[in-house]
Amino acid sequence: MKSFTRLIGTSVLSLVALCLVLTAAMPLFAAEGEFKTVSSEVLRDMLEEKRAFTLVDARTSDEYQVAHLVGAISIPDKEFDKHVALLPKDKGALIVLYCNGVKCGKSKKVAAKAREAGYTNLVIYPDGFPVWEEKGYPIVAGAEYARKIETTKFSPAQLKQILAEKKDAYVLVDVRDEFEFAEGHIQGAINIPAETFAAKSGVLPKEKGIIVYCNSGGRSYSAYRKLMKLAYPSIFQAILAEWKEAGFPVVKSQL
């Protein structure tokens, strides 16, 4: 019986050891489309562990000046030839590129130009700056980073008219928590909580106007700023408290 127990124990230990080996051997980068990709968490670890690679911000130079990932160099798509000398001389060196999220194509455009220039080890960070910032990972913030912006707001009457006459041209987003949304929201709204807004913004079409609202304006202001960084062209804000004060209805839903 003791021999059997020892055998089982040895087998379990061997299985655990095998799992650890396989986990250690797992690739850092996922295969996706024409370029490999890296997750936010893996990129964070790479930076914390000071691994050898070049991090490229493919957004505009103005966006880079406002804020960028720690250690990133700026090589905008339209200025590639001007800044290509910033890339490593070793054409096989690892280069990670990012821009403004999953619907931003600038990082892929710069990667394509780098590939044409002979670079072979190119990886895209698809979540981009907005998700990195949303997760609270380290950034370098410029003087303009905290500058307050003026949002384009819809009054309750304007919003009601839009929902009645032009609802197909807009997406209404409630950025409050899920339980708040369930307790009462504007008919037709979808729920994307503010704290994970950038990470889940891929469902929002850029060809439509995006209207964000919360109860008093704080969280929808945050979502509005994230939409700006994600390069959405048509963004609006509304206030749920004002909607209710105007006597307009809300609907409940199941959690």
From TrEMBL:
CDD domains, per the entry: RHOD
InterPro entries (alphabetical): GlpE_sulfurtransferase, Rhodanese-like_dom
The Rhodanese domain, residue ranges: 49-141, 166-252
Pfam families reported for this sequence: Rhodanese (PF00581)
Keyword terms of this UniProt record: Signal
Secretion signal, residue range per the UniProt entry: 1-30
Keyword Phosphoprotein: no
Protein name (record): Rhodanese-like domain-containing protein
Species in which this protein is naturally found: Geomonas oryzisoli
